[in-house]
Amino acid sequence: MVAVDTLYEHPTILGASTGHHRIFSQVSYKLVRALQFAPAVLMEAGQLARLFPLCWRLTDGVPVLVALRSLLPDGRGQAPDAPMHEALLPLALQCFPLVVPSADALVQQHVLFDATIADSPTDIGAPLLMADGRLSKAAMERARKAITFARAMPATEGLTADLAAAGLFEPWPLHFDLGHGEKVVIDDLMVVAASRLRADELSGIVSRHGVGAGLFLSLHRASLFRAGNLLAAAKQAVLQEHAAKADAAG
Fold this sequence. Notes:
The protein contains nine helices and eleven strands.
């Protein structure tokens, strides 16, 4: 889970000495608001494809399924129809700051959280552990989602590996001029080639992974059209920033 591991600044084991740490609504954290590429799993493709392009990003040479949330790396320019309600966030962000567990952590039943600061809290938060040592309701809900994501990773990685081994990926470079001297240059994304959708290798992969894999591939290709919404949002964000700077300069 290379891409998931990179999300966390200070992954910490939850225990008696750390249970006092408070967690807040997901959008209270800068990472949730600004993350450009959110790791994704097959089970959430139906929801994510309505909001974001689903593609693969090369991470340490390994293709990782992601939802592209913005063309800009600082969180600006997210599509206006992708509001930051908890239920509409990618699953890896719905559980934040609870950490998606590794296979070892699942076996050892460790609960980890990212001991990072909520820089823009929208509520008073809740402790991770109650006075009796049990997980609080908020922590329990996010821990369950983190485990759900972790358990869905093997199927996602398995399909990804088979697509890569069959040579079905092609680069998906995104190069755009946003105006006012700002450009988008993203060269590490891949998609399943449209020209290979009827390939014998793909039929074999769908047979091995089940009908859900075929549905996912259809959702994946359809989701790529969402890049147009991201481009419009990015241009608007750059235009607004340029206007604000012009006003400030007098």
